[in-house]
Write a structure and sequence with these properties.
Oligomer: heterodimer
Order of helices and strands of chain B: EEEHEEEEE
Largest sheet of chain B: 5 strands, mixed
Largest sheet of chain A: 7 strands, mixed
Shape of chain B: globular
Number of strands of chain B: 8
Distance between the termini of chain B: 24 Å
Number of helices of chain A: 18
Radius of gyration of chain B: 13 Å
Structural class of chain A: alpha/beta
Number of strands of chain A: 22
Radius of gyration of chain A: 22 Å
Shape of chain A: globular
Strand content of chain A: 15-25%
Largest interface: A-B, 53 and 45 residues
Chain lengths: 477, 97
């Protein structure tokens, strides 16, 4: 069978960009399929294409992405933007066929090895009313600022916990946005739990930057701490945010509610491919089982960056390089000692990037009430399945797990394929049954990892020339 | 819900003429369809097939599928993943997805 590339990489965030640069540098024919219109991933979204000229709005870290994109664009790797990979299928000869959709047209691409650098997505934040127009993730609003230069214009409330929430608030302030309130859902006592990990935190780069950022936000924004309940309300769109603090219910009028409680690995491709996964209890999410070089449980299938376990953008870049070295070794470009020598600097970078992670993971682990909803709160946005229905199916009707729940309620069977309900369903079932999330498991996912129309499948080109004809070259986007 | 930053904070960009639900709208080159609809003041992009509830973009990164619209007669496109193009026709009245 023929091959189009030695290495196919999915995602062009820091991990995918660095992995591609290093793979191409070792002479491997490398392609990067990126669902977004320009390289950078979410963290460096639009770093070379943003319409925002006053880049001071974003802070210093954002500029790091430009160096990664620059090195990638100088490399021999092929870049395909606007490309959704919907299948990664093992072939009989050990290589992979990827199903890729570009602008409504699909094609197959073959590669010897695959690196999934699919990054992270925001953790589900199931509160009453979270499906109302006017309720978005904080990351969504940040993406709109980066890619389109738009900022909130009306009464705006941020709610949740985690570094990104504070960063978005800080960036909005720099952009001249008025934030009506930041509702902090970090539970009481979390700081004490996190302190044993503070030694790592003190040594980390996060310390000075993080403290300054929080101080700036606190100076200009009304921060409400220890919020224990949240709800979005309105007829047809958001009008009010209800919240509870110290047992007292309060209401704020709002045009926009931005939610965030951390990020979790974006695993739909890895799951459908069959990679082994494990439960990370500190981060309350599943993550792939990977070796020192990002190798998954499947031969020649690798995971780099937050898609291999959430550790942030600096760690993602280092892991991108390490995975690429592992792939270069596995495909015969470099021997083991050369790989290990080249890896030393990246392992040091990774260790530095991981300092303080334990502190943050512990401090910002979302409260149970915001991960495991009850009553009429929608869990599955697509099929509009509520927590009450799931609790009844599991507690009273004997539904054993997430896959059976599909038969009971169609939960997780909608367009998003569980991306915004899967973790909630796992933890909710575990809670009702009194077992560990790892014992409940997750939806069994299958390809296509994103919906593809029949027309698109039926018109897939079959000749290599036809497949290659649609691959654009870097710099033309 | 959103406003564009002042011109002083933005690089100059061409205007892209698109059509939203039959009405002309001047989008900004580089905008996604979702960004253009938000710039046009739209909060609701579609309704749900089950209850008919209104939905608008939630994640803006391709994972939530709440921003589905009809683009140039192709239904169910993720508005956050498609860039605007001159003459593009966007329809949010296609019914439930």
């Amino acid at each position: 069978m023929t091959l189009d590339y030695d290495v196919a990489i999915v995602g062009a965030g820091p991990a995918g960009l660095v992995a591609a640069t290093v793979c191409a540098g070792h002479g491997l024919a490398t392609v990067v399929f990126d669902e977004q219109p320009a390289p950078g991933g979410q963290v460096y979204r639009g770093v070379t294409t943003s319409p925002v000229s006053r880049t001071a709005i974003f802070g210093d870290d954002y500029a790091k992405g430009a160096a990664l994109v620059g090195a990638f664009e100088r490399s021999a790797a092929t870049y395909v933007p606007g490309a959704t990979v919907w299948a990664v299928a093992s072939r009989a000869d050990g290589a992979f066929d990827l199903g890729v959709s570009i602008a409504g047209h699909s094609r197959a691409t073959a590669a010897r090895a695959v690196i999934l650098a699919t990054g992270a997505q925001e953790r589900p934040f199931p509160i009453p009313g979270w499906t109302l127009p006017g309720v978005m993730t904080a990351g969504a609003a940040q993406a709109l600022l980066k890619m389109s230069g738009q900022v909130p214009s009306g009464p705006t409330v941020l709610a949740g916990c985690g570094p990104l929430l504070w960063l978005v608030a800080w960036q909005f302030l720099r952009a001249g946005v008025v934030i009506d309130a930041l509702l902090d859902t970090t539970p009481r006592g979390r700081l004490a739990q996190a302190m044993p990990h503070a030694a790592g935190f003190v040594l980390s780069d996060y310390l000075a930057r993080g403290l300054a950022l929080v101080r700036d936000v606190r100076r200009d924004v009304r921060v409400v701490e220890y919020v224990t309940a949240l709800a979005a309300a309105g007829e047809g769109r958001l009008r009010d945010v209800h919240y509870t603090v110290d047992g007292t219910a309060k209401t704020l009028p709002a045009d926009l509610l931005l939610l965030h409680q951390g990020v979790v690995p974006n695993l739909n491709l890895a799951r459908a491919a069959g990679c082994a996964l494990q439960w990370n209890d500190r981060q309350a999410c599943f993550e792939p089982v990977v070796d020192l070089w990002g190798g998954s449980s499947l031969p020649d299938l690798y995971l780099a960056g937050d898609g291999g376990g959430v550790a942030g953008s600096d760690a993602a870049a280092a892991r991108g390089a390490l995975v690429a070295l592992g792939v270069a070794n596995a495909l015969g470009c470099i021997d083991g000692p050369a790989r290990d020598r080249a890896a030393v600097a990246h392992r040091a970078d990774l260790a530095r990037a991981l300092r303080g992670r334990a502190f943050f993971d512990t401090l910002y682990r979302p409260a149970d009430a915001f991960r495991i909803p009850r009553d009429d709160t929608i869990v599955c946005r697509c099929e509009e399945v509520t927590a009450r229905e799931i609790v009844a199916a599991v507690g009273e009707e004997g539904c054993a797990g997430p896959n059976q729940l599909k038969a009971f309620l169609r939960c997780g069977m909608g367009l998003c394929q569980g991306r915004h309900c899967g973790l909630t369903v796992t933890e909710l079932i575990a809670d009702v049954r009194g077992v560990a999330p790892a014992d409940v498991g997750y939806y069994r996912l299958r390809f296509p990892a994103k919906p593809v129309t029949l027309g698109e499948l039926a018109s897939m080109p079959t000749s290599r020339e036809a497949q290659r004809a649609v691959v654009r070259v870097k710099g033309t986007h | 819900m959103f406003r564009r930053l002042p011109d002083a904070d933005l690089v100059a960009a061409a205007t892209v003429s698109i059509v939203i639900d039959g009405r002309p709208f001047a989008a900004r080159a580089g905008d996604t369809v979702a960004a253009a609809l938000l710039a046009a003041g739209r909060a609701t992009f579609r309704t749900t097939p089950l209850s008919g509830a209104p939905r608008g973009p939630y994640c803006l990164m391709g994972t939530c599928f709440d921003c589905l619209v009809t683009i140039d007669d192709a239904a169910g496109r993720q508005a956050c993943l498609v860039a605007v193009a001159p003459g593009m026709r966007i329809d949010t009245r296609g019914g439930a997805r």
